[in-house]
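Z., the sequence and structure:
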Amino acid sequence: MPALVSIRPSAHLADVRYEIRGALARRSRELEAAGQPITKLNIGNPGRYGFDTPPHMREAIARHLRDSEAYGHEQGLEEAREAIVEQQRLRGARHVEVERVFIGNGVSELIDLSLRALLQQGDEVLLPSPDYPLWSAATILNGGKPRYYRCLAEHDHQPDPDEIESLITPRTRALVLINPNNPTGAVYPRERLERIVAIAERHRLLLLCDEIYDEILYDGAAFQPLAAIAGNWPCISFGGLSKVHRACGYRVGWMSLSGEPSRTADYRDALQLLAALRLCANMTAQWAVCPALQSAPTITALTAPGGRLYEARRAILEGVAASQFLDVVAPAGAIYAFPRVRADRLADFDDEVFALRLLEEESVLVVPGSSFNVPRSRYLRLTLLPQPEQLREVFTRIERVLAGMATEQRSRRHVSAAA
């Protein structure tokens, strides 16, 4: 019998990370299995925190169960794509047609398809830092190279158009925006987006805009669709049911290709080929798209003062304000906050060490900022989904761990000085 040989994974995975569901989450499950309850702030999964999908979406699926038993069109249910076209046209997107809309098993699948249809080995994609790490992973797995433009807290986590342009090389193919942003909650103003679109036009870059949190906004923040500014320039806008409509498990996302069709005809055909290779997206849940997009918004009651997301955000901002160690740029959109540990209060800080200690010592699971491709991160990402009172308790626990780390650092310095 031949000796057992371990199977080597693909070398493409060497630089791929997804710590939102990584080692810390696995350790959390081990602790839970041992009987330790864990407060989870690591993932934007509304259904796990008591948020319900709107009833009219459930009812639409129930009515069409028998219509969902065969394979569908590779680009998605036509009625659903028509509703997406209507939404995009009302937002000012140009040249959006049913044949230029693709429905997938969540935006995650479509991010991968959009980059697979675009990239040659070694091509570069401009990504924000911090980013949603799937964008980096999909770039790498499709032979591309991420190049990061910084969205610094000192600039309210807004992208710097001048820095973006300075990073462009002859191999740059695409420019990615995440607006409203995950993980920072930043919402980008029109003037800044206009400058970024102008850069894409000058350098012939495809615009890719992840707008999955488009309607989740606070304190009067305004969402500006990128396609409306891009006009005739090629732009892919990504949206879906997961966040605004609290239907993550339905796995329904879409991408709409706008801009002058003649510029993207071959690319559109490549997208269709890739969509056909996976046969079709989940048919059952696509029946929820029309009622989701054609009914009155259900998210605004949650994001207005008194609404659960608004009050959770308030609890986080108050928790940071009361902390000796933290600061934060108030999120204007999405369902996360991205607080930072202050260097003047805790000079030596490792976000991964902190996150593990918080889990082990205080039973709280967060995602370290380095998971979002932030070098030398002092950040942690918290979701706004738990109840506000639970978030207030979380900050008591965070403060205890940070205070313990600060005491230990002072002790080490005292010992070092005495020696």
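The first helix runs from residue 23 to 33. The longest strand covers residues 172-178.

Let me know what you think.
H.
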